[in-house]
């Protein structure tokens, strides 16, 4: 018997009995999801705009951005001037000032938004734009990440990401820098029921 066989035999002989998995934890649902979501989002450096219609988003974009700035909108109700579907090289998105995207669901405990690949077209878009606006609907708000992972099917689309605020980093001296590696701002437009 080789030393390898002896070691593997000893491990097999001393293997503990299998124990059942614990029951999944259950958490109670929050009743004030919008307030909790805003707290989580602002804690991450983002801003929340609660609106009744997406016409308010369109007005916000027209008021805060000019026609000479590159705006990539994947939200039907808001016109952009960059057709993302016609761009084959993601590097061509490097000068996008504003990306406007639809989010799948929002998580109140931390302000995160689930973004599957089909909502961004190019994986780089939500990270390369200078500013990011994401639209979510009130009925998609969830209490916590446990509920989010129950809803997210990671096999769909091949790629997805939770986004929670603009880009940020802090060095050893605890100096927080917003927009260091990605968007300088994130504004979430939450459409009421």
Automatic annotation (TrEMBL):
Matching Gene3D superfamilies: NagB/RpiA/CoA transferase-like
State the superkingdom.
Bacteria
- The name this protein carries in UniProt is LUD domain-containing protein
- Report the residue ranges that make up the LUD domain in this protein: 75-191
Q: Which Pfam families match?
A: LUD_dom
